[in-house]
Amino acid sequence: MNGDVDAVGKDDVSVVPKDDVYNRGRRRAGMLRNLGIVGILGLALLIGGVALATWENLVLGGALAMVIAGLGLVVYGLVTNLMRAMGMGQMM
Questions:
Q1: What radius of gyration do the chain's Cα atoms show?
Q2: What is the pLDDT of residues 32-41, one digit of tens each?
């Protein structure tokens, strides 16, 4: 085989490019770059608010965390459907 790919096994036909194996960690940091400074600040305020509510009352903090997670899922669903309607559904 050439130097660009590693075969997983002799009988296995799946081939993994070396770039995907060694550069997986770099792709995960991309989300923070896409958020920008305002997004990171908003995320910090969100986590701080849930932590403060949880410090006062565990049940209230848990409920607030569930509401925020549900809101995130709703926004994700809306954005996904909007992207599909515009013909860009394969991007997500």
A1: 20
A2: 677 778 888 8
Instruction: Give the integer Cα–Cα distance in Å for 56 and 61.
Output: 8
Between the alpha carbon of residue 86 and those of residues 17, 69, 74, 91, the distances in Å are 32, 26, 19, 11
CA-to-CA dists, residue 42 to 5, 30, 88, angstroms: 41, 17, 27
32 Cβ contact partners less than 8 Å away, ≥ 6 residues apart = 40
Supply 43's token pair. 């995320």
Contact between residue 43 and residue 32 where contact means Cβ atoms under 8 Å apart = no
Q: Token pair for residue 84?
A: 């599909």
- The C-alpha angle 47, 52, 55, rounded to 5 degrees, equals 125
CA–CA separation, 71 vs 56, rounded Å?
Answer: 22
For 30-40, give one letter per residue: b (16+ CB within 10 A) or e: eeeeeeeeeee
Q: What's the predicted TM-score (pTM) here?
A: 0.56
